[in-house]
């Protein structure tokens, strides 16, 4: 079968069809990694670029990501069986005191769409939780999200906590969210600020391929 | 000319002695007044005290009566926590699924913390009479109120999965917003403001289908029944919906810093006033008084004092902003060589 059809249906947010097509591709003996890359990730990549260019917005991304997850669930056991590993592991969360999660969720979806493994710590995440997860799960990147000017300061505490436990040189810290800027990123000593979810995923891939 | 008159002149495109200023001050006023957030958001006396402290410090033309964007969802069954000195947080939406949302009853304005806003409005009008413009925030426009009621992510997915049910929920949220606005007008507001920031997350066609008609209906009902001007705020980069925001019929659209004021002015083309847009982060929070002055002057350059402009921050001024930067906005309006 043409894996591009999976990509197209994913872009249209058709979760049920994507699931059926992925199963069909598996049954035809196409390797799981190829279905993942040429079907699901290719589709999510198109959505990511369109999102960055304001050609699609949040609802379209949410339904595309839902379709991707439905397909990926079928592939996961096969990928594990084949010994295929994610290109990097990231932990992500909205910082302590902040319960806003749409931006964080979009970044997670885009990163998964780039083939990264993402550990979602949810919202209201304490600095020590990021650090502990990064150590225990061997994450290459910590991603911090904030929507409030009152909570974005926690990002400085995350950087400080990484320094204190001696993992600062082993982990990249990315920051984002509506009030966050490049200047703020430098001020708190984080490694990267990205203005949108797609750029965040691209930056994360870049970091993972450098280490 | 007093603050009330200056704001009305701006909205009516009439010349005034200087531009009107209404910086979006909520949390920053807590720093000025030295009161905690939970008192402000739950006690009208504390709210009035905080708002008046901000008015005294910055001599604005209006007071902005607002707490947070969870008042409607809370009054309709959501659960809100008031941390001692941080903004209120929504712990639970009013409903979990779109099927339940359509069975909700429209807002009862005696529920939740809506009486706090109404009473603060009443007290401020009594105290300030018609000297200072009282701009009361009635939480959110129908689209964003619906997003809060169901949870924004769930709502966004259902715009695609269950559009008809979303329209049903939007009818309920529209009726709720109108009820809130009528009560605020009765309490003494000079102007009604609502935000529609969830609507920046959807594409233009969806905005036209799900946000615009309901905002339009709410604006029309409020204007017809109260005669008061309506302010419509959408955060973020609204360039893809700017012309549609104007079609809501609001008397003033509020523009964030990503949208050039020149573009907003050109798009509005005299159909509504524009409020904005000195950047909240770069100028107010991270910048200097000179940065605020420079941005403010560039905005006044575009409009002069011929009306059509409310000089403001692009969004809410962050709490820990240096007071000198906030004061710089007032001074820019006062000292501009008109």
Molecular structure report:
The complex is a heterodimer of chains A (211) and B (338). Chain A has 211 residues and is an alpha/beta fold. Chain A has 2 domains: 3-81, Methionine synthase domain (Methyltransferase, Methionine Synthase (B12-binding Domains), Chain A, domain 1), CATH 1.10.1240; 89-210, Cobalamin-binding domain (Rossmann fold, 3-Layer(aba) Sandwich). Chain A is 57% helix and 10% strand. Chain A contains 9 helices and 5 strands, in the order H-H-H-H-E-H-E-H-E-H-E-H-E-H. Chain A has helices at 3-11, 15-27, 32-52, 58-81, 102-112, 127-136, 154-164, 182-188, 197-210, and strands at residues 89-94, 117-120, 141-145, 172-176, 192-193. Chain A has a 5-stranded parallel β-sheet with strand order 2-1-3-4-5, sandwiched between helices. In chain A, helix 1 runs parallel beside helix 3, helix 5 (102-112) crosses helix 9 (197-210) and helix 6 crosses helix 7 (154-164). The model of chain A has no long low-confidence stretch (mean pLDDT 94). Chain B has one domain (3-335): Alpha-Beta Barrel (TIM Barrel), CATH 3.20.20.210. Chain B is built from 16 helices and 10 strands. The model of chain B has no long low-confidence stretch (mean pLDDT 97). Chain B is α/β, with parallel strands linked by helices. Helix content of chain B is 52%, strand content 13%. In chain B, the strands form 2 sheets. Chain B has an 8-stranded parallel β-sheet with strand order 1-10-9-8-7-6-5-2, sandwiched between helices. In chain B, strands 3-4 form a two-stranded antiparallel ribbon. The chains are: A alpha/beta (211), B alpha/beta (338).
């Amino acid at each position: 079968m043409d894996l591009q059809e999976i990509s197209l249906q994913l872009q249209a947010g058709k979760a049920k069809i994507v699931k059926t097509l992925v199963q069909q591709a598996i049954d035809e003996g196409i390797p799981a990694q190829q279905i993942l890359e040429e079907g699901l990730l290719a589709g999510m990549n198109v959505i990511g670029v369109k999102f960055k260019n304001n050609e699609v917005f949040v609802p379209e991304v949410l339904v595309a990501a839902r379709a991707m997850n439905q397909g990926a669930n079928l592939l996961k056991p096969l990928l594990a069986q084949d010994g295929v590993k994610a290109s990097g592991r990231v932990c992500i969360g909205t910082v302590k005191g902040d319960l806003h999660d749409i931006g964080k969720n979009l970044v997670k979806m885009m990163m998964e769409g780039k083939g990264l493994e993402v550990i979602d710590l949810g919202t209201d995440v304490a600095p020590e939780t990021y650090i502990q997860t990064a150590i225990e799960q061997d994450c290459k990147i910590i991603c911090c999200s904030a929507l409030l000017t009152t909570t974005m300061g926690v990002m400085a505490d995350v950087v400080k906590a990484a320094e204190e436990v001696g993992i600062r040189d082993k982990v990249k810290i990315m920051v984002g969210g509506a009030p966050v800027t490049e200047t703020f990123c430098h001020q708190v000593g984080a490694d990267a600020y990205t203005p949108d979810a797609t750029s965040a995923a691209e930056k994360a891939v870049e970091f993972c391929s450098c280490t | 000319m007093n603050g009330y008159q200056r704001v009305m002149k701006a909205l009516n495109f009439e010349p005034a002695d200087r531009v009107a200023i209404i910086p979006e001050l909520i949390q920053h006023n807590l720093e000025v007044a030295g009161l905690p957030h939970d008192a402000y958001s739950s006690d009208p006396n504390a709210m009035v005290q905080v708002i008046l402290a901000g008015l005294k410090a910055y001599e604005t033309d209006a007071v902005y009566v607002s707490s947070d964007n969870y008042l409607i969802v809370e009054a309709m069954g959501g659960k809100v926590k008031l941390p001692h000195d941080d903004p209120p947080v929504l712990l639970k939406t009013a409903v979990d699924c779109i099927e339940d949302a359509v069975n909700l009853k429209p807002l009862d304005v005696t529920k939740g913390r809506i009486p706090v806003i109404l009473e603060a409005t009443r007290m401020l009008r009594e105290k300030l009479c018609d000297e200072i413009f009282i701009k009361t925030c009635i939480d959110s426009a129908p689209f964003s109120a619906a997003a809060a009621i169901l949870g924004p992510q769930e709502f966004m997915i259902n715009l695609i999965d269950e559009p008809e049910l979303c329209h049903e929920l939007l009818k309920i949220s529209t009726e709720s917003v109108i009820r809130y606005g009528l009560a605020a007008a009765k309490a003494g507001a000079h102007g009604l403001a609502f935000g529609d920031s969830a609507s920046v997350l959807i594409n233009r066609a969806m905005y036209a289908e799900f946000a615009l008609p309901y905002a339009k209906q709410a604006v029309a009902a409020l204007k017809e029944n109260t005669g008061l001007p309506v302010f419509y705020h959408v955060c973020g980069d609204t360039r893809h919906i700017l012309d549609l925001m104007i079609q809501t019929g609001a008397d003033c659209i509020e523009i964030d810093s990503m949208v050039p004021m020149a573009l907003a002015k050109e798009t509005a083309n005299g159909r509504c006033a524009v409020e904005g847009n000195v950047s909240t982060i770069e100028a107010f929070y991270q910048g200097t008084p000179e940065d605020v002055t420079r941005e403010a002057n560039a905005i006044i350059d575009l409009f002069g004092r011929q009306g059509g402009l409310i000089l403001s921050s692009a969004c809410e001024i962050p709490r820990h902003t240096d007071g000198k930067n906030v004061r710089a906005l007032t001074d820019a309006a006062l000292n501009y060589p008109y």
